[in-house]
Design brief:
Elements: H1 4-19, H2 21-35, H3 48-64, H4 80-101, H5 104-107, H6 109-114, H7 121-147, H8 156-183, H9 187-200, H10 208-218, H11 228-234, H12 237-250, H13 256-280, H14 284-287
Helix pairs in contact: 2-7, 3-4, 4-7, 4-8, 4-12, 7-8, 8-12, 8-13, 12-13
Length: 288
């Protein structure tokens, strides 16, 4: 016999979530306004971290290690810094979203314990605030690319669509991590370490062609048909980085394999995160 009580709770939960859309907007606005409140530069501070990272990574990998510059096809761009930032900005958004998201429920314990509302709006509001900052950064990038000769304008609608798709993936992962962190408080600290490995295992600072060349030399790993580049392709951020570089730097359609992979990671992760969060939401006040 079907669990009608569980189904009823799920339906009621999603109705409450829809009814809480105004709260979601208010929390998102609070995050946006509060982050740079009473600062002289305001929103411009959101560019400080990307600019610092671009300068450091460009010097180390382009000047010191001399990673070969990538020629935009068909854009014709030949600029490591611009190539780098097309992949770096999506990562910085993703990194910031899940780093804040994993602690979102625990950090808002007082609010969670005082009044009932769908707590899902907390990690979603952080994702929404991160999206606003990211839009600002990407607008600056689009201007820079245009100045250096890229034809970005026709690709902006698709870029925005994939920005939203990455936001869906980041939100879904934030849901799962925020619930896990309620049970295992060390997760937030462990995640910081794991993200460092994840960053360097994603072809952001170096092109995937270098991985492919090494993979061809090694062949199958441990006597299996699985190659090094196959393992790289399992990385959920690899297709997203590839898509943004194709659209913004190369000014061409992304590979459909990357598109399908990005869509699968985003929608499956979000669906699983939403299901798990809705199951655990009613007990969060007691658990924290």
């Amino acid at each position: 016999m079907a669990d009608t009580r569980g189904d009823s709770f799920q339906k009621a939960y999603f109705r409450d979530l829809v009814a809480s859309r105004e709260l979601l907007v208010n929390l998102t606005q609070r995050e946006i306004r509060g982050k740079y409140k009473r600062t002289a530069l305001g929103q411009l501070w959101s560019l400080a971290n990307p600019i610092a990272a671009i300068i450091v990574y460009t010097f180390i990998f382009s000047v010191v290690f001399r990673v070969p510059a990538q020629i935009g096809d068909p854009s014709g761009l030949n600029n490591y810094a611009l190539w780098l930032v097309c992949g770096l900005l999506p990562w910085l958004f993703f990194n910031s979203t899940i780093t804040l998201g994993v602690r979102s429920i625990v950090d808002n314990a007082n609010l969670v314990q005082k009044v009932y509302f769908p707590r899902l709006v907390i990690p979603l509001s952080l994702t929404g605030a991160g999206m606003v900052n990211w839009m600002f950064e990407m607008a600056v990038l689009a201007i820079a690319l245009t100045i250096f000769g890229a034809f970005v304008l026709p690709w902006i609608p698709l870029t925005i669509a994939f920005m939203l798709l990455l936001g869906v993936f980041a939100a879904g992962l934030s849901m799962l991590l925020s619930i896990a962190n309620v049970h295992f408080r060390d997760l937030a600290y462990l995640l910081t370490v794991l993200l460092q490995f994840w960053f360097y295992l994603t072809p952001i600072l170096y092109p995937i062609s270098l991985v492919q060349a090494q993979s061809d030399r090694w062949g199958g790993l441990l006597g299996t048909p699985i190659t090094l580049v196959d393992l790289y392709k399992v990385n959920p951020m690899e297709p997203f980085v590839s898509i943004f570089r194709d659209l913004l730097y190369h000014n061409t359609w992304p590979e459909m394999s990357s598109v399908w992979a990005a869509m699968a990671w985003a929608f499956v992760t979000f669906a699983v995160g939403l299901w798990v969060f809705s199951k655990k939401d009613k007990n969060l006040a007691e658990l924290i």
